[in-house]
Amino acid sequence: MDPATRKAGRGDTTGTLDEALERLHTSGPEREGWLSNHAPMAVEALVRHGQAPVVHRWIDAYRDKLEDMPGQDSPVSESNWREALGDPRRLADWIRHFTHQVEEHPWQEVLALWWPRLLPGISASATHPVIRTGHAVRALLADGGRTAPRRAELAHALGYWAARHSVLPRIAHLPVEGSAEAGYDAVPLIADQSGGIRERLARITALPQRPHPAGRTGQNGAAGPGSTDPDSARADLEEIVRAATHRYATHAHGSPVMLVHAATAPNAVLRVLPALPRTLWAAGVDAAWAASAAVTAVYAPAEGAPVPSALSVAPEEAFARAAVHGDEHAIKFPDTALDVAARADDEDPLAVTAVLRATELIEPGA
Questions:
Q1: Cα 156–161–163 angle (5° rounding)?
Q2: Which of 77, 90, 154, 248 has the fewest CB atoms within 10 Å around its CB?
Q3: CB 173 within 8 A of CB 209
Q4: What phi-psi label fits residue 43: left (phi over 0), alpha (psi between -120 and 50 degrees) or beta?
Q5: Is residue 144 over pLDDT 60?
Q6: CA atoms within 13 A on the CB side of 33
Q7: Residue 172: which residues within 8 A CB-CB, separation 6 or more?
Q8: pLDDT digits (tens, 9 = 90+) for 243-283
Q9: Predicted TM-score of the model (pTM)
Q10: What is the CA 99 to chain-centroid distance, rounded?
């Protein structure tokens, strides 16, 4: 069990998460044609951090953002999945396909088969599908995959990812930096930060490769940029999530909502790694960095801003404030920031500051 789980995690003994997921699975993964349904992710985070009593009330407030599941077209199969990949008209077909898969096969086998197929499209729908997958996998790992609603949630997440699958444009690879902080500093910001995320991503021409601290070695002695050693890659990813969370504290003013994904997307991959064969870890870390760097390139401001210290606020108190705030992004980002704080030897004041920054800059929910 990872340190974040040991220090911050708690199982759901109330049944609230399964009830909430069953309630939400009548809804589709999107609304208004492309906006993401954040409810399954937010309720998993709320339950995870001891806020189960507010979950159904939170869903009631969110219900105007829920739409019915779209209609089905034709079944997705092992023989035709490539032509259906990235076709948003096939959302319901993809979800049905994965629902059957997790009913007929162990969910970890389904995940391991599809992870490398879906990974190139990690930036799909502003990274929401991979984030939803991360929440689903964490919930499954917490209860050993015993409950049907949690397996169904994985099916919905993977189906959403497959239907919205889209690959970043071909870009130049800039040199590797020796730390995650330096990696983010080296990300070239696009000159025209206007329009939606798809238009912005299309303007990226270059990104640094995954940062890798000089001299780090894994259990097999592998080291250096882009190491495929699983332990080294995971350590790189933990640093990426930590740096992105800290950077939100100083740069969130550029785009308070969209910049949360620079941290929550790579953290979603970190949550998935324990459920995957170790041979798949390094590719996931490379993709996680690319997605986070891309979000940074298209939404980050050129300059950071000073922020006050949050030494007097405990991490769980910061999350409780986020739950009261109510916005889905202001709930999901603290969930990641508390993972960062839990992995620290001591409490991480800047991670907690980032949580307070999110609740300050993001408009409160209903």
A1: 95
A2: 77
A3: yes
A4: alpha
A5: yes
A6: 0
A7: 205, 206, 207
A8: 999 999 999 999 999 999 999 999 999 999 999 999 999 99
A9: 0.93
A10: 21
